[in-house]
Amino acid sequence: MEAFVLSSRFGEEESKLPGIRQGPIRAVRDKARRLSDVLLDFDTYQWTVTKLCSPDYGVKVRFLRGTSLVEVLFCFECDILAVTANGATREENFDFNHNALVKVVQEIFPRDEKIARLERNEDEQVERQEFLRTLARDVDHDQDSQ
User: Fold this and answer.
1) Distance (Å, rounded) from C-alpha 5 to C-alpha 24?
2) Residue 57: what pLDDT?
3) What is the CA angle 24-43-7, rounded to 5?
4) How far apart are CA 108 and CA 94, in angstroms?
5) What is the pLDDT of residue 14?
6) Sign (positive/negative) of CA torsion 127, 112, 90, 55?
7) Which pLDDT does position 87 carry in this prediction?
8) Which tens digit of pLDDT belongs to each residue from 70-121?
């Protein structure tokens, strides 16, 4: 796995910098495994939610196995990631594992000041439980109306 810190597209001080601010960093196997475990955890995502954000991706990781390349871009401000594999890109919200992703990214880039300032979401678990309750109510409502 390779990881990069990207320059902001919106920040005036960074907008004139090259697109890649730091990297590639080759992550050690345990960090790559922890990152991929979080990304593969379906409970990480808010599958049915659309946000009205313009992501400003700050971190990019690449997973390469043989000739297969998967690239993931992270916006930690709005908790949106974009995954590109086999030429197709999909965006998703990672609100429910924001903290785990921040932790791994901070370990990969321990000296980056901007990454070090990423904040944890203290209400992450409460928000996940509320979302799951709402989702369950919606499913029950849909079944009742059939």
Assistant:
1) 8
2) 92
3) 25
4) 19
5) 60
6) positive
7) 87
8) 999 999 999 999 999 988 999 998 888 889 999 999 999 999 999 999 988 7
- Please report how the helices 29-40 and 98-108 are oriented relative to each other, as an axis angle in degrees rounded to 10: 160
Question: Are the C-beta atoms of 6 and 57 separated by less than 8 Å?
Answer: yes
Which residue in 40, 28, 39 sits closest to 3, CA to CA?
Answer: 28
**Region for residue 3 given its phi and psi (left: phi exceeds 0; alpha: psi -120 to 50; beta: otherwise):** beta
In this structure, which amino acid lies at residue 97?
Answer: N
pLDDT band of residue 59 (cuts 50, 70, 90) is very high
Round to whole Å and give the CA distance between 94 and 91.
Answer: 10
Please tell me the distance from the alpha carbon of residue 6 to that of residue 123, in angstroms, as a whole number.
27
SS3 for 54? coil
Would you list the domain boundaries of the chain? 2-120
Alpha helices by DSSP H, listed for the chain, are: 29-40, 98-108, 113-116, 124-144
Taking the model in full, what pTM does it have? 0.77
The rounded distance, in Å, linking the Cα atoms of 55 and 9 is 9
